[in-house]
Amino acid sequence: MTIKEVEKQTGLTRSNIRFYEKEKLIEPLRNDKNGYRDYSEKDVEYIKKIAYLRTLEISIEDIRNIMSDKVPLEEIVEKQAAAIQTQIEGLNKAKDICERMLASGNISFEELQVEKYVLDLEAYWNDNKPVFKLDSVSFLYIWGSLITWIMITLLCFLIGMLSYAKLPVEIPVQWYNGMAASVVDKKFIFAYPLACICIRFLLRPIIYVRFLVNFLYGELITEYLSNYLCFAALSVEIFSILFVHGLIKSVVAVLFIDTAVLVGILIAGIAKIMHLKETAG
Q: In terms of C-beta density within 10 A (0-12 exposed, 13-18 middle, 19 or more buried), how is residue 158 classed?
């Protein structure tokens, strides 16, 4: 059957079905006559099962392991149920405290007395350690914020404006062994802030779809990587200006430093967040 028929039978969108194919969770045969995908009834059933497990927030990797018989479905469902129960208990406690605060009448930050709602303060802090651990990686959220993107984009534009008059008629866009391999009109200096805009509004949604489905913190990773690409654009812009004035020769070193520092921060932050998830569970 065609993908249009699969969409009708499953109620899922074409992008979802294609994604499961990309992840090798289903592998439909090809029609010998026209080369189009030919989905079987088994493929349709697999697609529905995969989508159903995704609604339970079971990861793609866990689903892959289930389908390859590396781990039984029952084990994954038990683990997921336990994780959800832990979340429910935490949310119920927070809900009870919120209701007690509201029931006490008018409340304000100045008049808030924590001990009124928490009998054992030390035990309460211990129960909420994951929150404080998450605070320790707040820098990761800063790197992935919209404000950071705006600042990088504006900085790209400002640097272009300030340097434009002193640039030669042509500036390099490709380099080889410390020499300009390709040059363009100096107006190209404004392509860097434009690249930041394209990354944010065109590339970012693609990255978002890829990471959101596979990772609990997919949205955060998407924002971080998008801003990293913008930061790389800013670095190349600065390098181009320094290069034409003979102050620097290798763009590879600049990008390597960018990657080492920013990806290092990302790995450290995600590692802390994943550890937070494990301790919370």
A: exposed
Q: What is the largest CA-CA distance in the chain?
A: 76
Higher pLDDT, 170 or 248: 170
36 pLDDT more than 90: no
Provide φ and ψ at 167, rounded to 5°.
-80, 150
Distances (CA, A) of 24 to 40, 54, 69, 118: 15, 15, 15, 50
Q: Which two tokens stand for residue 275?
A: 């550890």
- Cα distances from 110 to residues 87, 113, 182, 203, in angstroms, run 30, 9, 63, 45
Which three-class secondary structure state does DSSP give residue 171? Answer: strand
- Give the range among 166-175, 182-191, 249-258 with minimum mean pLDDT: 249-258
Residues 54, 63: contact at Cβ < 8 Å?
yes
CB contact at 8 A, 6 and 39: yes
Measured from the Cβ of residue 220, the count of other Cβ atoms closer than 10 Å reads 21
> d(Cα 66, Cα 55) in Å, to the nearest integer?
16
